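Tutorial handout. Part one gives the primary structure; part two gives the three-dimensional structure as tokens.
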Amino acid sequence: MSDASLNTAQNSAQPYEAGFGDYFALLKPRVMTLVVFTALVGLIAAPVAVHPFVGFAAILFIAVGGGASGALNMWWDADIDAVMKRTARRPVPAGKVTGDEAFAFGMTLAGFSVVLLGLATNLFAAALLAFTIFFYVVIYTMWLKRWTPQNIVIGGAAGAFPPMIGWAAATGGVSLESVLMFALVFMWTPPHFWALALFTKMDYDNAQVPMLTVTHGRPATRRHILIYTVLLAALAIGVGFTAIGGPLYLAVAVYLNARFLKGAVDIWRRDETMAEADSYLTERRFFKASLVYLFAHFGAIAAEAILSSLGWGLW
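Part two.
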């Protein structure tokens, strides 16, 4: 064997060493973006001014807590992630990070984020962050996800807490306004994920996850998307007439919800023959539009808060 061949064989025999990118992937950075943004809006919309450094620390530790939840989710779900095309390349099923490493990483970040958020802001915000991590990892990931087709409905609460945590970091409590921001994310989550379940086809079937598409079928899922979108639209537009709303928010909400409702109706009208014919383009468009939908609504809430702080609010 030549020296080059020998070196190649030796290198291939060496165990893979996880790098920064592998651990960063455990944090679910795309999901973390949503966590950070909605938490920041909760902080901005709060009626209590926060020192910029305290605000930065609060958002940083909320982000770390969200990343900890992602790492612990990947630790527990490695078996089903391995058989789903969408998740098979995640660090644990891909063999880049061991389950024990993911667990230790997630637990360390969870403890770190909760303690430091409490020190930087207040104990209530820290307790709410701790509960959010517990809810996502234990209630949703370990229990609801594999047990009931309502998994994403109830489990959606975990993703809805960040704006409440941001609000609590500023005020030390909750209020109707923070509950409304929670409700926006909570009601948005089911149609967002059910659209994903529709166009990922057999992923959830193969993993035996009781998503609504698996337990009740695709036509029922399409009906549920429409129902939840109607309820979401009523809630989102109604927020425009509260303390965190305003004319700018209301204009954004009316426009986006009209388009979102149209997308839900388009999905509801479809059948599986049409879906196969166009590779679920309607569902993909609705899923992508749902991301813009949430960011735009929360961006409008932040804009209303900033305008009000400058004395430019119209109501």
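Part three, for discussion. Confidence is low (pLDDT under 50) at residues 1-13. Residues 236 and 253 are 6 Å apart (CA to CA).
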